[in-house]
Amino acid sequence: MFSREMCCDGICETEYSYTDDWYACIDCADVLFNSYCLEKLRAGTLGRLICNKDHEMVHYPKYNPKKLKAIGKGNVEVGGKVMSVEDWKAGIRTSYGLEPLPAKVQENGMIGNGIKEIEESTG
Ligand SMILES: [Zn+2]
Ligand SMILES: [Zn+2]
Which of 12, 23, 30, 73 is the most buried (most CB within 10 A)? Predict the structure, then answer.
């Protein structure tokens, strides 16, 4: 076997990059097509016994720096609406019937910088 980089599992051997549209198969593990080969798969003309034209695909859209900038750091686009990641997570919690998280929870319940001063008595 040869090892390969992430590249199209169709016939074009295009390497995976963020500058193209990609489709990952939900039913097959580790199967990735670009739109060129997906079209062939769907049409039954791919010529490779891989995946299936009826399989469902997840679409990874083209990397779009302009759009990313418009959405802004710390925000996500969900269903065409831009919101902060925090709001999005809170919304998910609510939709599962969970309480919203308190604003700030200190890990292991310590106060301040987490360092607890211990005074030794030297009696
Ligand atoms: Zn391809
Ligand atoms: Zn598949």
Answer: 23
Same domain, 55 and 96: no
Our measurement of the distance from residue 13's CA atom to the centroid of its chain's CA atoms, rounded to an integer in Å, reads 23
The CA 32 to ligand 1 mean position distance, Å, reads 8
Same domain? 10 vs 54: yes
Q: If pLDDT is split at 50, 70 and 90, which confidence band does 2 have?
A: very low
pLDDT digits (tens, 9 = 90+) for 95-117: 889 887 776 655 555 554 445 55
What separation in Å is there between the alpha carbon of 31 and the centre of ligand 2? 7
Q: Which of the two residues, 84 and 77, has the higher pLDDT score? A: 84
Distance from Cα 97 to the centre of ligand 1, integer Å: 42
Which amino acid belongs to residue 98?
A: L
Sign of CA dihedral 112, 114, 115, 117: positive
**Residue 95: domain span:** 64-100
